[in-house]
Structures are given as structure tokens and as C-alpha cells.
Amino acid sequence: MEGVKTLTVELGERSYPIWIGQGLLSSVARYLQEIGISHNQTLLVVTDEHVGSLYLAPVVQSLQEAGFRVFSYTVPAGEQAKSLACYEKIMTYALEHKLDRQSVIVALGGGVVGDLAGFVASTFMRGIPFIQLPTTLLAHDSSVGGKVAINHPLGKNMIGAFHQPLAVIYDTATLATLPAREVASGFAEVLKHGFIWDETFVQWLQDNAEACRRLQEPFLAEALYRACQVKSQVVSQDEKENGLRAILNFGHTFGHAFEALGHYQRLTHGEAVAIGMVLAAHVSEVVYQQRGLAERVTRVLSTYGLSGEWHTLPWSFEEVLQKMYSDKKVIAGRLRLVLLERMGKAVLTDHVDVEILRAVWSLPFQSQV
């Protein structure tokens, strides 16, 4: 289709397409038919209050006009929707409206909606198909790869599954309504894909930062395509995070600790991960003797309006460390970190001495502004 970028997550019989382009929501029915969704399959569109007010009515209308039987459920906007309470309410709604094993869940929204709706799909009648319609920059990451989950009061994403979508249909026109802070937050994950896998992508993002931050085409679609390409390559090689896929958590062990300590309100996910990536880059410098690595990571993040400053956070190193040890990525009591052997080459290790982390925490921050 003209003007639409397409790539495939290669998982054998469960391979699926990612479509990226402007105005795709108006053609959702056509894409569903292309992947074999028939009119006798009931659709349940899950969205949140913010996204729903913008896009739910036209999406439902277009699907109904194409002959689909469609229901919808709207959850509150924000991380609080990834809860057992919201999960149970959607399950009840699906049962009350007679969804069956052939029904399809459609996740219309950002990462929270995608994770929640995907987890519903993974467990309803032991698993039904679902489709991702991401509407945020951050969701370029969460919508690809099949990780679906809800939160527990004691930890983020602690209740979840691996459940791949049938397709990811990414309408970049929906990103125009995002506030600047959310745009910056989303680019943290875009940059992460470059840091861990492709130094030339990092340079491209640095060279085209102004156009990307303005969501200017064709730069926006190219950035998302290349980031999704990295994610799909990693997932194709290691679907269930037995090894390689863990590198996608670069910056996240620190970042998830910051999010949890801030009760998911002080920092956006991207802001927390950006700080985590700077700290992880400093640790990488110590472990792999890569001088200048943290300075470059910090500089590139700053071009997207992201600060890696951790000294202004209100928590002590001991508080952060304790929260890091409660992360699900801790195995047998050993803290696992993703580090950079060099720019574009990430590795997973559980051999970093805590005293190195403590020393990095005490370093002065070098602002790039």
C-alpha cells in the first residue's frame, strides 16, 4: 500500500505484520480482512478515556460499516488502568456480551491499553487473538513483541504473559495530539533501540532530531520503522526472553525502580528509562572501559528533550537499590543489568558489583544543555 511502511515479526506460523503510515485507522477494516479476520468474529475494542474521545467512534463506525460486529470498552487513562480491577471488569463485559474463542480484542491506545487488552486476550477462554492499534510514540515498543501484563501493588508488570498480536497497525497521524512531554518520553525507547543494536541509527536520530521531535514526515515514519525493525529482529530470535531479548531492558532496571518509587506519577516511563540509560552507560564505562559512552548517550538524549539527571531525584541510592532487587528481572537474588560493550552492542550481565553502582550514583552529572 502506497506510503505505508511494512515489516514482519518472524515467528514461524505466528509471524505478523507491522504497518506504519498516516491515516491507517480509517482503513482498519481493510487491514483486518487482509489478515483473515471474518465478519463472523466479534470484535471488542478496548481503549481509554483520552484516546477513546478522539478515535473510538470513527474506528467503530468504520468497522461496523465494513460489516463487523463491534463492542467497545473504555478504561480510565493512565497506569492505574493496568490493574486486576480493570482486568476483571473487561472480562465481565466480554462474557456478558457473549464473546467466544473466535472473537478478537482490538487494543486502541498507548502502552497501558495495549498491555491490559493484550493480557485480557491472552487469558480470555485460554487465549483469543488480538490486534494492536498504537496511538502513542512509546507504544511503538510495547505494541511489538507480545509482552502483555498488568501491575500488582508490589511491582509493575508482575502479572502477565507472552501473547503475540495478529498485527500492529500504527497510524502515525494519531501522534499529532501528543503533548511534548509524551513525545520526548516515546523517543527514549526509540533511542534505546539504537543504543543497544545499531550505532548508525543513533547517528541518524541525532542528525534528524529536530524533524523527528516535530513529528515531521518522512522522518517520523522512518524513525518508528527502524526502531520497530530492531525490536522485531530481537523478538524473532528470542521470543520469550530466554537470553537476547533481555537487552531490550537497557535502562529499565533503574527506570522501573524510579517509576515505582514515584508511584508512576513523578516520571513518565521514558523519562525514567532515560535516566536509567545514562546510569547504565556510566556503569558500562567502568566495566568495559568505554570512555565517552555516557557522555554520548546523555548528549543524544538531550537533543530529544530528555534529561539523564538523577541527582534531583528524591530517593537515596539504598532506596533505589532495594526497589531494583524487587524487579522481576532479578534471578536467584542476582541483579541483572543490560550494559553496552560499545555503542550499538548491548549485553546482559549479573556480575556487576553493587559498589560500582554506588560509585556511579555518586558521580557528578554532566549536563549537555
From TrEMBL:
Name the cofactor(s): Co(2+); Zn(2+); NAD(+)
Q: Where is the 3-dehydroquinate synthase C-terminal domain?
A: 186-330
Q: Which residues bind Zn(2+)?
A: 189, 252, 269
Q: Which UniProt keywords apply?
A: Amino-acid biosynthesis, Aromatic amino acid biosynthesis, Cobalt, Cytoplasm, Lyase, Metal-binding, NAD, Nucleotide-binding, Zinc
Q: Where in the cell is it found?
A: Cytoplasm
Q: Listed GO molecular functions?
A: 3-dehydroquinate synthase activity
One Pfam family linked to the record: DHQS_C
The pathway it acts in is: Metabolic intermediate biosynthesis; chorismate biosynthesis; chorismate from D-erythrose 4-phosphate and phosphoenolpyruvate: step 2/7
What name does this protein carry? 3-dehydroquinate synthase
